[in-house]
Amino acid sequence: MQLVSSPRVEKVRGWVLAVVVLFVALAVAAPASAAKSITELVHRADHVLRGKTSAALLTMHVHTKSYDRTYSMVYWGDERSSKSRALIKVLGPARWRGHGTLKIGGRLSLYDPSSDRVTVLSSSMLGDNWMGSHFTNDDLVKETDLAEDYVAHMEKTWVADADGKPARYYRVKLDPTPKAPVAWNHITVQLYEQGSHVIPTREEYYRRAGQKTPTRTLTMSDVKDMSGRLVPTKLVMHVAAKPGEYTELAYKKVRFDVNVPASKFTEQALRQ
Amino acid sequence: MTNSFGLLLAIAWRNLGRNRRRTLIAGAGIALGVGMCIASFGVMDGMSTDMVRSITDVQLGHIQVHEPGFSARPKLELAFDKATDRTRAAEHTRGVEAVSPRVLGWALASTRRQSTGVQLVGVDPAREARLTKLDRRVSKGRYLPQAATPWAAARKLDRKQKKLDQQLTQSETERAEAEIEALAGGGATHEPADKLPSAQKLRTSTQELLQQVAPKPDSPPPLLLGDKLARKLQAKPGTRVSLMAQNLDGDPVNIEFRVVGILHTGDRALDNVRAVGNLADVRRLLALGDRAHELAIRLRDPEAAASVAQSLAAEPAFKGLDVKTWTQLRPDVVAMVQTNSVTTAVMVAIIFAIAAIGVADAILMAVFERHRELGMLKAVGMRPASIVLMVTTETFLLGLGASLAGLLLGVGIDLCIGHYGIPLGGLSSTTLAGATIPPVLHATITP
Question: Of B176, B183, B216, which has the smallest distance from its Cβ to A259's Cβ?
């Protein structure tokens, strides 16, 4: 209603503004904001190898008591829509060449060229391991987001060198939010911040509270520049139940913001 | 004394004959009571026997041998080696009638229309037929043929083939890289397509290598499906079903089988999930070699299970393995059978009490009715004790005769039910905790 403010009102406004500014400043400086930035760090670490769209060439080496096996694979991923989609095709060796895995949201289809058949996985098979590795089918399907489904608490922070340059390391404990559809009691993530880059180095998954050794451990190393982004290119998964065994993913090439056509995520592409 | 007791016996016998109607009614009461008790004992006993049989004869056998831990949590890798030798060793053990080695795994079965998880069981057709008469449970189609499906052995690639394989992988990688670059908008990238082998050549070369490292069977191996499972998969004899599983090496395998027959065991759990193949074929599929997960053993005398299990466990062939009787494997069924017999005992006690009260009533009434007669006997000099003895003798004779009649009646009813069975109306077979109560009750008579 009042179009022209009186000087007195102006003065009050000034005070209010000052108080607000002060509060904001305090809030930024306060530990509460640190928690927020930790969540952001976790978010960035969780998405380090995930772009809106991405494509990668990688090898997966599986070492178990009974076999050693290396697959060459190509990965196509698209997280632009609410259902994240991915296609993984095995390029070699001959035993698995042409095998494919297509993920559309929570649905996983496997293709075996020797029988020319696409199998949609039933929920009972989600716990099985994927292609004989230490990852489960569920690992591929689950849509959990470390930053969204977990509450982050900082446990420890220190400064150390990473790739010859100083970096600030953080160890963060993640507790699932009450509604999160997750199977873990808690996760600890170790990551470092170096300039504008955030790189995860270790994720430990715990099944129960108070558990000493993690059920699964994912370590990330060999940070390289992949089309303009610094990313860890070696991921190793250890499972406590199978000591001495591991699955190692080595990225040879990662491209982000690749214009992956929707036709890549169809049964036809899976069969190709 | 003997003489007077003989006289008493004669008098008592005659007294019974004097009022035939009274005697018959009282006697019929006793006979019916005894007969029904025997009949219900028989029916309940028959139900228990049927339940136990449904466990031991349809699948379990009387004794099973497993790798330790398998019965608690079945896993593919919990298989014992030298299964052939161990089967023979069990077959040569005293009291053993039949032995069937089995492999058990989980697979995803899919037809063109449907797919579902199945319990994949590999059995030796002849041995399994001797153990569970599986061949007689085929409701449609045929039983498994004895011979294993011809299936070439896998061979490793030689150096030249390995090199070819690496080249193929390399060219596939280059092709994928070119595609990524093109889509990433890298503009004019080098186009290596012309120097890469054609997709056709790649496929045929891969096929050749694959046939060597992971050969397919010469023809689809035979498979039996439970009838409910077959309905779920919309399969009938002749349908091709592909089984996808993970073998012992952790390899995903996918082999097409051909349905030869449909099984109906009446056990809902089995008919719903079980797919049965030839032991040799399923072993090949799951890369199990000469391993087995289970030896099911059938005994000539089921009661001897515990002692035979003990002597088996002591044999060197079964060292380190779990040898368990069906009562150890299925304590739930044992508990059910026990509950059943307790229930029957309580029921019979009630029937008996009712019959006893009925008889007492009839005798008491008869004594009141014979008030004058007994008075006369007393008047001619019979002692009261003798009168009591006389009535008791009468009752005893009546009871004895009626009980014999009741016994005949009960046994007759049991034999009839045992032979024809009591159809339980529209009820189909009921499965209680894995034990099946068949739709027809059969009585058995045990001493």
Answer: B183
